[in-house]
Every structure is written in C-alpha cells, then in structure tokens.
C-alpha cells in the first residue's frame, strides 16, 4: 500500500532537510517517492502501477506519494518542475530522480539497480 506523506511525515521518514544540509536518509528500507498532482493524467496512470509494486515489494521497500499541490514546500525542496517525478532513495547512498510516467518494467529495473532490491 502506498502512503501519502506530508512535510511532517517526510521529515521523519525520508529526509529532515531542516536539520541536515547533506542528504541523510531517515528510512530503514529503500524508498520510492512519487511526486504527483490529482489533475495530472500521467500521474493517474502511474498510480495503479505503484500500488502493484507496493504489493510485490511489500516489506522490502516503502512507496510514498507526495501531492505537489498540497506540499509545495517539499516539491520546491526537490526542485520538482514536472510531474510525475520519482525519487529513488537507497539506504546509505544518494537518491536519484526519474521523471515521467515510466513503464513498470523500467521501474522494476530502477528498483533493482538503484535501490538494490529484488522481488
């Protein structure tokens, strides 16, 4: 199940950018964060794919969603200029950003290569 994050939950579960200038991942397992908006067609198309991945990788990765309209400060903090944008957060390494509604096969490849997680 994907989980929607607010700024408050993001600071606790992903990265407290108010305390740390350098990236410091707060999560205990890798995360995929989807920056989206309700009016965005490609975002709506991506949502069921992320739910599938959430079920397939349950207990191995966390999949979070951030509504860029409601959480404009978070979107600005990551310089989100187009949506959907996804932030892949491995444990102990720098995050990587991907833009666009990527197909599931490509998302699985990024999960394997960047997050270093197999199904």
TrEMBL record:
Cellular component terms (Gene Ontology): cytoplasm
Pfam families, alphabetized: Thioredoxin (PF00085)
Annotated TM spans: none
GO molecular function: protein-disulfide reductase activity
UniProt xrefs under SUPFAM superfamilies: Thioredoxin-like
UniProt key word Disulfide bond: yes
InterPro entries in the record: Thioredoxin, Thioredoxin-like_sf, Thioredoxin_CS, Thioredoxin_domain
Signal peptide feature range: none
UniProt keyword Electron transport present: yes
Protein family according to the UniProt entry: Belongs to the thioredoxin family.
The protein's name: Thioredoxin
Taxonomic source organism: Tenacibaculum piscium
